Amino acid sequence: MGRQFFVGGNFKMNGTIKSIQDIIHQLNDAKLDPNTEVVIAPPALYILPAREHLRKGIEVAAQNVFDKPNGAFTGEISAEQLKDSGITWTLTGHSERRFIASKTQAALNGGLGVILAIGTGKVATTEQAQEVHAEIRKWLSSTISQEASDKTRIIYGGSVSEKNCKDLAKQSDIDGFLVGGASLKPAFVDIINARS
User: Fold this and answer.
1) Dihedral pair phi/psi, residue 66, rounded to 5°
2) What is the CB neighbour count within 10 angstroms for residue 185?
3) Are residues 156 and 174 in contact, defined by beta-carbon separation less than 8 angstroms?
4) How far apart are CA 84 and CA 58, in angstroms?
């Protein structure tokens, strides 16, 4: 069985109650590719209302998770708290937030899906993106196992837009996208449907 295509929308520190409600209504009303897994990551303040109002089949991610289960850690959210709230995914390792290993392990131990975001902040060509994804897959195969290489979804996050998503989606080692600013626009639906 092949890897399911994935599109995540990282809203970063953007949005208001109204604008996020508008995005949710647009996603709920849109015809989305049923073969694409869709996850949105609004700012922490909005993850519970997003979860409450999104239709079944669209998941919500936290933009960060702490590596401890509880305690005197002001402003942090644990994997257990996210799971308890119906949040099933989290970002870890994004360029604005690091401490990758301990946060990723805490999220996995807590039963969350992990979107590990790594990158340079520079936009790659389609060919460059495919080349790097193929090298990551080759590394997984030789260092971990062929099974890990076959099952791991490697997603691209370098300024994905409605203009470049279809070409990127055709690449054999690109298993989806982590979309930033374009996830706040109506064109996000086109990106989700890049393979249809």
Assistant:
1) -90, 155
2) 16
3) yes
4) 18
Per residue in 122-176, pLDDT (tens digit) is 778 999 999 999 999 999 999 989 999 999 999 998 789 999 999 999 999 999 9
Helix/strand/coil percentages in the chain, nearest 5: 40, 15, 45
| C-alpha closest to that of 158 among 150, 167, 148, 145 | 167
DSSP 77: -
Within 8 A by CB and 6+ apart from 134, the residues are 172, 173
Counting beta carbons within 10 angstroms of the beta carbon of residue 66, is it exposed (0 to 12), middle (13 to 18) or buried (19 or more)?
buried
Residues 6+ apart with CB under 8 A from 100: 92, 93, 116, 118
Q: What is the pTM of this model?
A: 0.90
Q: Do 168 and 154 touch, CB atoms closer than 8 A?
A: no
